[in-house]
Amino acid sequence: MPLTAQHAVHMLVTELAVFRFIDGKMWLTEVVEGCDIATLREKTEAHFDIADDLRIQRGDA
Predict the structure, then answer these.
(1) Are residues 30 and 11 in contact, defined by beta-carbon separation less than 8 angstroms?
(2) Under the GO molecular function aspect, what terms does this record hold (predicted)?
(3) CA 36, 39, 41: angle at the middle one, nearest 5?
(4) How many whole angstroms separate alpha carbon 17 and alpha carbon 3?
(5) Could you tell me the pTM of the whole model?
(6) Which of 12, 15, 22, 48 is deepest in the core (most CB within 10 A)?
(7) If you average pLDDT over residues 54-60, what whole number do you get?
(8) Measuring CA to CA, which residue among 10, 9, 45, 50 is closest to residue 31?
(9) What strands lie across the sheet with 25-32, from one edge to the other?
(10) For 11-52, how does the pLDDT look when each residue is reduced to its tens digit (9 = 90+)?
(11) In terms of DSSP bridges, do strands 17-22 and 49-57 run parallel, antiparallel, or are they unpaired?
């Protein structure tokens, strides 16, 4: 069943990154090691801000 409610999603997890939705804004909170911010911006149509405590997800974790 499709998700149609507003503000129902709090976190978005992809193969490259984790985004959280806080106060109506999309925040990049984790990124896979080796993936740079420019690549994420190219692949992501939505605007996002970068969290001050951005975590790097290592491949061996």
Answers:
(1) no
(2) acetate CoA-transferase activity
(3) 110
(4) 21
(5) 0.82
(6) 48
(7) 88
(8) 50
(9) 11-13, 17-22, 25-32, 49-57
(10) 999 999 999 999 989 999 999 999 999 999 999 999 999 999
(11) unpaired
